[in-house]
Amino acid sequence: MARTRSSRSFGDTARDIVRFGKEFPTSSPSRFAIVVFSGLILLFTALLSLPLASRDHTVTPLADALFTAVSTICVTGLSVVDMATHWSPFGMVVIFIGVNIGGLGVLTLASVLGLVISKRLGLRAKLIAAGDSNPLRAHGGVVNEGQTVRLGEVGQMLRTVAVSAFVIEVALMLLLYPSLVMAEVDPLVALWEAPFYAAMSFTNTGFTPNPGGVLPFADDYLVLIILMAGVFLGSIGFPVIYSLAKHVWHVKAWSLHSKLTLITTVLLFVLGAAVFLLLEFDNPRTFGSMDAGDTTFQAFFLSAMTRSGGFSVVPASDLNGSSQLVACMLMFVGGGSASTAGGIKVTTLAVLALAVFSEAKGRPSVQAFGRRIPSDVQRVALSVVAWGATIVAVATVAIEQITKAPVIDVLFDVISAFGTVGLSTGVTESLPDPAVYIMAAAIFMGRVGTVTLAAAVAATSRTQLYSLPVERPIVG
């Protein structure tokens, strides 16, 4: 009898575990995404810790392996070791695979894993994937407002993600190979560097396989233009690529999200270049020794890379303090939602700017292109900005206290970590282990935390059948 009772208890436990495994992804896709990404980071930490992964066949210290794994899976590009000399070919292949996995997106990756297991795209997988196209869906509850990508279109969206990622990276690789060969890179070496650079540009990571990074190509505008194109395509986001592929040149049929993303991205790209040109034209360490054409091009390249690209021709430490602050602003904003870029996202900035404009005009609601932006979206945007500012502030104070480095350098690298950009003033490479872990946490929260926070805020939205008395505190 005791054996039967024990067997029944084990069976019930097993059924509970199976039920939890089925319900957990859709009940909380955002938490499921964190579990998946955390598991991937642990896996890649183990792989990068193998003696086979280092060039001298020694075990990489845990802090260095963990940081590189986080930077890889979160497509950041910051490194505490010299990428070109520390990692063996095996280690570089592991990193190449990791950035392509991480670049797909948190919830998209989770849905793909579910699709592989279930062999079909059911409602659970659709709910998970929908959270990557709109964080308001990531809490698993009802969303009443119109979506950038509707639930019925998620299957098409996933196909667009897979096809576009493959096609764009292959196209970049085919363009880069002859460009690298013309830049006097050995043809056999270029067979590896071309796909590596293609993946790093599209995923907005910024790792480089060769010593000196892109500095040897500082005067090769063809290579730099291809890298800029890859960064731009990766940063606009898969929902925008899906919208453009679906409606091609029918601008009126584009979603509001696509319009806001493209307009804000182009505006920041142009304004960023103009500001860098104004602030750096007389700096002998950066643009001061260049002619007008070179200065203008490098200003645009710097503007593009501070949006999450991470490739660097001009060392960040050589920039004027004013330019570093502007770069911090651009890195904090980042790229488009559900893209390979990080930051608070350009649509977050656009929504807040529209809210300020509407308030100044005395409009009762926030509007753009004939559409009303609901209050819950504005609330999520404000929460994401506050969340990002808090992460940056806490991490900067903690690392500054540990390292005693110049605060502007620490702030620059922390924002680069939070925005998954990859640019550095040199602080990150010399961090002690405690500061390395803090920086890794900033990367992880910057990549995954904004989606999770957006989901949590959206999940708290409840219908209220009564209203409380109004009282206005003094603001400003």
TrEMBL record:
One record GO biological process: metal ion transport
InterPro entries listed in its UniProt record: Cat_transpt
Localisation: Cell membrane
Coiled coil location: none
Gene Ontology MF annotations: monoatomic cation transmembrane transporter activity
Topology relative to the membrane: Multi-pass membrane protein
UniProt keyword Cell wall biogenesis/degradation present: no
UniProt keyword annotations, A-Z: Cell membrane, Ion transport, Membrane, Transmembrane, Transmembrane helix, Transport
Transmembrane segments: 32-53, 90-117, 157-177, 221-244, 256-279, 329-357, 377-398, 434-459
Cellular component GO terms held in the UniProt record: plasma membrane
Entry keyword annotation includes Transport: yes
PANTHER family in the cross-refs: KTR SYSTEM POTASSIUM UPTAKE PROTEIN B, TRK SYSTEM POTASSIUM UPTAKE PROTEIN TRKG-RELATED
Name the UniProt record assigns to this protein: Trk-type K+ transport system membrane component
